[in-house]
Structures are given as C-alpha cells and as structure tokens.
Amino acid sequence: MEGSAQSEDKRVERSKAKVLAETYRQLALNGIGGVTIEEISRHSGIPKTTIYRHWPSRSALLVDACSRFGSAPEVPDVGSLQGDVQALLTDLADRLQTANWNSVYPSIIDAAERDPVMASMQAALHKSFMTPFEVVIERARAKGEISSQQSTDDLVAMLVGPFFYRRWFSKQKIDRSFIDAIIDLVICSTSDVG
Amino acid sequence: MEGSAQSEDKRVERSKAKVLAETYRQLALNGIGGVTIEEISRHSGIPKTTIYRHWPSRSALLVDACSRFGSAPEVPDVGSLQGDVQALLTDLADRLQTANWNSVYPSIIDAAERDPVMASMQAALHKSFMTPFEVVIERARAKGEISSQQSTDDLVAMLVGPFFYRRWFSKQKIDRSFIDAIIDLVICSTSDVG
User: Is the CB of A99 inside 8 Å of chain B's CB atoms?
Assistant: First the structure.
C-alpha cells in the first residue's frame, strides 16, 4: 500500500511538472494574457479536470508558476557598499538581458494593474528581488559608510530604476559602462568611503 | 452633391470617434489584451465591417488609439537645467499618478515584447515623451552647464527610470521630496551651475 501511495505521489508530481513546463512555455511565447487552461491541457496531455484538481483556478496556476520565476539574488558581502552594489547590478543586468522571465515580467506588471491576486504576487516577487539591495545599503548605513540623507527606498529606486527603464522602456543596452555610471552617481556621490 | 459628401464625412468622423472612445474605455478597463473588435462593435453600435473599413486590423486600431495617448510634454525654458528638469519631472510625476494611459502603458510594453507593430508604436510613444528631456539636457550641455562625462541617454535613464520604477514596479508614491532627491543627485552633482 505504501509503495502504491508513493507511486501515486510520483505520478502527481510528474503531471504537475508537465503542466508547469507547458505554462512556462506559453508564458514565454505570449505573456500571461496568452495562457489558457484549454491550451495547457491540449499541449501537456494532462486533462483539464486534473489541472483544476491541483490548481483551483487559472489565476492560482499563474501565481504558482510566476512565483517560481528565477531565484532571488544572494546577498553579496565583498567588504564595501560599492563592491556589493556592483555585484548586485552586474547580476541584475545579466538577468535582464538573458533570463526567461524578463519578457514575461511586463505581462505580470500589466495584470497587476487590474487583478489584486496578480498584484500581490508581483509585490512579493518585487520584494524578493529588491531585498538584497536593501540589505547591503542598510549594512553600509549601520557602518557609517553612507553620508547622504537619502532613504534606502530612494537609493534602491535610483539604482534599479534606470536598469528597468533600459530593458523595458527605452530598449537600450545595459553594459559595463552604464553599470559604472549608475554606481558612480548613486553610490560614490552619497557614500563616505569610495 | 458637395453637401452630401460633407455630411458623409461627418458621419464617418462620428463613427470613428465612437469606435475610438469605446477602444479607450476597453483599454482602461482591461489593457490591450482585453480589447476585441467584437466587443467594440457591440458597445459602440458600429458594425464590425465599418470598423474594418476604417482600420484594416485590430492591431491598426490599437496603434491608432494608443498613439493618440496623451500629448508629449512641452519643452520648458526657465533659464537653468535644474529648473527645466524640475518642470519636466513634476509634469511626469503628475501624469504617472493621474493620467489614464498610465494603467494602460504596461499592456503596451507587454505587447511590444512580442508584436513588432506594437514595438514600433511603443518606441515612437517613448521617443515623444523623452525628447523634451533630451532637448533641455543638450541645451545645457551646449551652454557649458554640464560638467559630467555622462551621455544624454544615461542622464535621461537616471532621471526617468526611478519614476517608472515607482509607478509600475515598487508602487510607491512619487512626491515632491522624491522629485527633489532625484534632481539633487542627477543634476546638481553633474552640473557646474546648481
């Protein structure tokens, strides 16, 4: 009996994995607006009733799939605010220009404008990606490395905003010289230690 | 005959205006993804065949509607780079927090990720909104007001990026103190004249 329960568990895991893989494929192709349970069922071969047994609604499946998007960056500790921010922005630039989620994220932002469930999922995703920035800034502040009056929220907006602007709005390259220019402006002009 | 041609023109204008008004209403409710010719026809009372006579496709109608979104800001000339940027950012903050298009724009950004027609429309919209920033920065550069090596593109990203970040990603308030913090950082630290 135990053996059969185990194989049942595995079968459930396999069918959930198939559904999630197909959801990611449709998200990458068409964004959130293009994802339907109908098409997921058709392409994954998993019956709609089974999909609805695992996720009670299309929204629930989308929230589950999108909240697994990428892992939050680790908090660096290289010994200076400038070094930590450089590590985080280099990682962000890389994710923005190569990761799968970067072409899907605008559809999450769009859905969040109207759907409260998507809005709270987007808020959680956003928080998980911004927390490392907040941690390194607060640590530097505690060490007296930051001389400016600017709040941590303001500094994060000044560091990350230009990157999002380039990826999704102006569609310009985010290269090493752009990363350095942002760090020069935001970190070097607001910190005591260069 | 001339009179009848005129009344025919007026009738066409009225029906186009009805279709555009209904398109805006659906855009504001649901973003681009929620706009269908079927629903526009149903709510405006204009037959689908007439809509397709004016706009050959759903895309063409969306491009026409979205490209009329808001007017580009005027180029200010108050005598200093700081004053000009302050005028532009105050106007931008206001538009981002009150204008109709700000909840629709993410759906344009999303569509632009996959649809080349939407991408070129978004690029044109973006350009029309950023040009005033470029004009005041280039004018200040020509007058020797800017000491930094930073390119105009970099400065625009640093000024505008944090605003877009707050409106669509972190959902934080854009108030007077935030506007002043951005100007202090980007303009005062890169210009010779304060």
Answer: no
